[in-house]
Amino acid sequence: MTDKRDLLILGGGLVGMMLALAAARKGISSHVVDRADPAELTAEGFDGRASAISTASWNLFTNIGLADRLEPHGCAIASIAVTDQMKPGSIDFTPEPHEGTLGRMFANRELRLALFEAASEEPLIAWHAKSEIMERHRGAHGVSVVLADGTSLHASLMIAAEGRNSPTRDEAGITIAKWDYSHRAIIAGLTHELPHGNVAWEIFYPAGPFALLPMLDRADGKHRSALVWTVGEKDAAGTLKLSDRAFLAEVEKRMGGLFGTIESVGPRSSYPLGFHHTARITGDRLALIGDAAHGIHPIAGQGLNLGLRDVGALVEVLAEGMRLGLDPGDAQLLRKYEQWRGLDAFTVALATDGLTRLFGIPGRAASALRRFGMAGVERIGPLKTFFMDEARGVTGDLPELLRA
């Protein structure tokens, strides 16, 4: 007998698996297909790959029952410091004590461990790891895929959650606007002499932003931060090949002694930076979520949070429709999801692209203008509050699962 489920989620990363779990909490079943080996994604060690989880996104983790499992592994972001080359005229985003934190930092490994553990215990999720998709089919009455081992999986709605290079999106012929920033983000975990004080630093240099993100101390008390350093594509290979000593010297030079001596650096990795946004996020019995629909610069740390807003909206639309007896792949449900998420995601993507270009303008005059503008934001309370609410993800039409 065919195990037909409500959703066929192609991509079992952070966004895809969150969708499966959030849907399951609403009684919606799914197949999740991913080519990766979970054991490799959850291997021991901290390599600097981490995610900022906004207040609204943390509400999603809480509402689907994962907060207690994750809480001990998260480092609170008490404030965000934004500066142009460590010169005067910075912004200090620190909420009032009753407003709580600006978010939490998690090593991606800890997020995956929590998601994979919960998914393996959820009967409404059929998880097909280490699986290659050979064929995709979308028809009038349902969707299906054929795996490399010949297995056929069937559902009512196909979800593309494979990330920036989504083959499902490309196969569907969905138009995409994209450009390359000719920059690369270098990721590494740092241990350092002084505590970070739960402050996330965004230091802008002409070559690109230099972000230091607070992480929990190691078991031996050593202080840790995640580094996201943007360099020009032409300089990336050389920077990655630097010895640990030379790399740490370059990092310390840009940090201006913020955390004292940088004692060690973990494995370095990198990825190219670009912008892309699809003309639409739905098709016939198809919905796009996360980076399959929109890829933005990490300058504001909103990439994953944008995908989790997709998750909340899609689950809410589907749950409401199914309560009324509609099929999950019904065109009117997909239209509602498109209208809800299309504009919000595009607005955030454009704002992020604008910031990237604004802080990338070289020269003393441009730097002075930026610092003048930041000093103005620092003095204007309502404007500062607006930016903090944006960082928390609590603005706009929030899905129910992302509300407190």
Automatic annotation (TrEMBL):
<protein>
    <submittedName>
        <fullName>FAD-dependent monooxygenase</fullName>
    </submittedName>
</protein>
<dbReference type="InterPro" id="IPR002938">
    <property type="entry name" value="FAD-bd"/>
</dbReference>
<dbReference type="GO" id="GO:0004497">
    <property type="term" value="F:monooxygenase activity"/>
</dbReference>
<feature type="domain" description="FAD-binding">
    <location>
        <begin position="6"/>
        <end position="341"/>
    </location>
</feature>
<dbReference type="Pfam" id="PF01494">
    <property type="entry name" value="FAD_binding_3"/>
</dbReference>
<keyword id="KW-0560">Oxidoreductase</keyword>
<dbReference type="InterPro" id="IPR010971">
    <property type="entry name" value="UbiH/COQ6"/>
</dbReference>
<dbReference type="InterPro" id="IPR036188">
    <property type="entry name" value="FAD/NAD-bd_sf"/>
</dbReference>
<comment type="similarity">
    <text>Belongs to the UbiH/COQ6 family.</text>
</comment>
<keyword id="KW-0285">Flavoprotein</keyword>
<comment type="pathway">
    <text>Cofactor biosynthesis; ubiquinone biosynthesis.</text>
</comment>
<dbReference type="InterPro" id="IPR018168">
    <property type="entry name" value="Ubi_Hdrlase_CS"/>
</dbReference>
<dbReference type="InterPro" id="IPR051205">
    <property type="entry name" value="UbiH/COQ6_monooxygenase"/>
</dbReference>
<keyword id="KW-0503">Monooxygenase</keyword>
<keyword id="KW-0274">FAD</keyword>
